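Field notebook, page 428. I keep forgetting to write these up properly, so this time I am using the form the group agreed on. The chain and the ligand, NAP, are recorded exactly as supplied. Prediction of the bound pose follows.
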Amino acid sequence: MSTPLRLGIAGLGTVGTGVIKIIQTHAALLTGRTGRPVTVSAVSARTRDKDRGIDLSGYDWEDDPVALATRDDVDVFVELMGGSDGPAKAAVEAAIAAGKDVVTANKAMLAIHGQALAEAAEAAGCVIRFEAAVTGGIPVVKALTEGLAGNQTLRVMGVMNGTCNYILTRMESTGLPYETVFDEADRLGYLEADPTLDVGGIDAAHKLSLLAAIAFGTRVAFDKIELEGIERISIDDIRHAADMGFRIKLLGVAQMTGRGLEQRMSPCLVPADSPLGRLENAMNMVVLEGDSAGQIVLQGAGAGEGPTASAVMSDVLDIARGFRVSTFGRPASGLERPVPAKATAAAPYYLRMELDDKPGALAKVATVLGESGISIDRMRQYRHSDTTAPVLIVTHRTTRDALDHALAGFAATGVVPGSPVAIRIESV
Ligand code: NAP
Ligand code: HSE
């Protein structure tokens, strides 16, 4: 019998229990694929006597994840607790110091401490693998690190938070307002313990920052992402965007330009009939563009027990097979500190504003756009109240600077009450 690969699993929640189910139900399959059994030596969670619907009787229990991470009978420490700091980071550091390989689903920890942990792992001769941290069951880390390793990556983009995609698509299909659908997502258990991580775009930005590091050979720069969540998206925006042939998505885009690394996570309009536009419910989609391979589109479940555990197991099996790759696809010491660049590339924009219903009001708006160098592609005015009328404008390609100039100009016209909504239209 060949030597088993022995795991210590810290965290027995959604993902941890899913991993144990795969190990227990697919033992023969896993051994067949790697040539060695994958076993669990010990587990850890906060509460020992919780019924988790799985049989843990064959495993030792450790109250302290650090003690688990450093056990002699653990070859790979599997961190599935979550949290950027605290016990997750302490246990991963302890595992590396003890010479253990690490598999984690923890994007928050890697987005903040990824560089330091990758350097520590390499110095200790260990690997850190994190397929499950980015879009759950979609093997995008592997695709970038391995499948596209011979390409210069041109752009990485996608919908990387299922909760936001659920809220946006459900608002459109039901016509319900943001607050109602947010409560529904909460009841379905979709929201993170801190929902701001989802709807504020932070969770998706964590994922984008990890993909950008692999794609562009740069240190993880989560704090340099231009970030905007979906909290300000109204049912009116969703309806009107649909009228104009678009869908609103929380879209992440990372690309290396002559000025530096652009990374943004923000609501964007995409054509309704594009692959991203057709993405429904809590699904994720990542689009990778390589100079040789062209565009690759990956779609699947970005979260949940089965999909995320599947990604954890792919990392575990790589280690069992003896496949070892640097955390971000090249030695951590070779990752360059990126020069952050603001996204200045021109794009069409969608504008929605309330306009005073009086003679010359629309002409004033058109004048401001003209003076800002912005050309109108399409425009619609909707049924109005006694005093104001909602107006939608799709512009031709323009820069963010020109748009900001126009937004300031609208405020000075005296006919645009409130703040107009401006959303970039992304080409896919
Ligand atoms: P979860 O259901 O909340 O489970 C967390 C587990 O960690 C629980 O078993 C908890 O113990 C344990 N834990 C928390 N603090 C601990 C501590 N101080 N010491 C020991 N154990 C501790 O979380 P999850 O959804 O499985 O997520 C786990 C990780 O996967 C996170 O990094 C998350 O971001 C990532 N992830 C999750 C998904 C998903 O779909 N859920 C998708 C992609 C990535 P108790 O059970 O005793 O409370
Ligand atoms: N909260 C995340 C999402 C799942 O909604 O996509 C974990 O990454």
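OBSERVATIONS:
- The first strand starts at residue 5 and ends at 10.
- The pocket of NAP (ligand 1) is lined by residues 10-16, 44-47, 50, 65, 80-82, 87, 105-107, 132-133, 136, 303-304, 308 (CB under 6 Å).
FOLLOW-UP: compare against the apo run.
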